[in-house]
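We modelled the chain as a single entity of 271 amino acids. Its sequence is:
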Amino acid sequence: MQDRLIFLGTGGDPVVVGKQDLRSGGFVLQTEGMQFHVDPGPGALLNARLAGINPRENTAILVSHAHINHCNDVNALISATTFSGLDPQSVLISPESLVNPEEGKEYVPEFFRNCVERIIVVKPGNKIAINRIEVHVTKAVHPSEEKAVGFKFLCPKFTLAYTGDTQYYKEMEDDYKDMDILIMNVQEPFNRKKAGHLSADDVITLLGKIKPKLAIITHFGSKFLQEDPIHIGREISKLTNVQIVVAKDGMSINPVDSSSGTRQKTLNIYD
């Protein structure tokens, strides 16, 4: 299996996802012969097929928090991965709010919980070893879902982090320092704040303190799309001197090459 990072969808807020102005469905990381599907929101199965991704190859399904635009297709994905439990493979990694009926939001019913080989309930600070890869669970400040988390993947050939949905918080630079690739959910443009979400201004603050080899912004809201996302990406890059990629639906990159320090010459290919 080739090393690939595939963005199935880049839609963020309920308006963009609801109208499907941009696709949704999370992203997939393929490396070391394993496949990780992160945040399978609406359309995850369809968009995986469009990207040529076979859900039967999923090593793990990871969900950052129990909001529809991040977990809507989790049961469909579990079914496709395991043949509805006939071949119970893969693990589900998520906060308690996704899988605990006592939380009052039974997003994953008992039938689908029994389909996977194992459910790993996580909170910030947890570490999970999956063959040669370590998954570290990071903090997220998302008031409408207090148990939200982010993830870091420590792989033999690169390191990659995903913030999930979070607002900027004091220790954020410590959580994401020394990452080769940093994927940030950036719902809001410059000069606009919303609780629980990053804005372009927050990205500049964070990247001013850490310097990943590549920063990818995704999960765009309606106000972000009203402006020019490519222009916003260029401004962030100019002000931080960090290579920025503005994710696009269906975009695929090689995380090994992208973490090698080779700089992308232009953002125009994402227009």
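As a brief sanity check on the tokenised model: The domain at 4-260 is CATH 3.60.15.10 (Metallo-beta-lactamase; Chain A). Residues 36 and 60 are 5 Å apart (CA to CA).
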